[in-house]
Backbone:
């Protein structure tokens, strides 16, 4: 009997099918990696532009007044014309005192203490509305329509606080 050296056709076909399966999986995963890295690059760009706008607002804050809350400020970045931004301003709001204390106003039997708490809370609420403003910045890529929103707080240095009881 003669010994046959080499692979049979069936062995070659099985090896080729296994190789093609792994090549298909590898190419597919590389495609996902490329699309994921493009999305990551886009998100980093949007985050950097949001941070740039926040830094501009912190360094050179606008006059914080009620008219800022009416319509959002919109614009386009000069260096990056494919990116637009929208800035929304909101006053700081504090929930109602009864919801903060966990119930109605009858948690204390001492009416004088309750009146003092209400007065202090009212002053804190009034001053916080003037001192602290929320700024929400949304940057959008005009080509892809992909948005990113970042929110922060601004302190109103020009607000006057009266702490007298």
Residues:
């Amino acid at each position: 009997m003669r010994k046959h050296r080499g692979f049979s056709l069936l062995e070659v076909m099985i090896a080729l099918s296994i190789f093609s399966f792994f090549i298909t999986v590898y190419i597919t995963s590389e495609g996902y990696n490329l699309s994921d890295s493009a999305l990551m690059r886009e998100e980093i760009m949007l985050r950097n532009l949001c941070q740039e706008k926040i830094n501009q607002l912190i360094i050179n804050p606008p006059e914080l007044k009620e008219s800022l809350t009416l319509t959002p400020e919109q614009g386009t970045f000069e260096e990056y014309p494919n990116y637009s931004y929208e800035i929304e301003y909101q006053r700081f709001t504090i929930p109602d005192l009864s919801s903060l204390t966990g119930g109605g106003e009858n948690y204390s039997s001492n009416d004088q203490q309750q009146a003092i708490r209400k007065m202090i809370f009212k002053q804190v609420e009034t001053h916080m509305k003037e001192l602290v403003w929320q700024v929400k910045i949304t940057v959008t890529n005009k080509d892809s329509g992909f948005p990113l929103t970042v929110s922060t707080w601004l302190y109103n240095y020009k607000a006057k606080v009266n702490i007298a009881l």
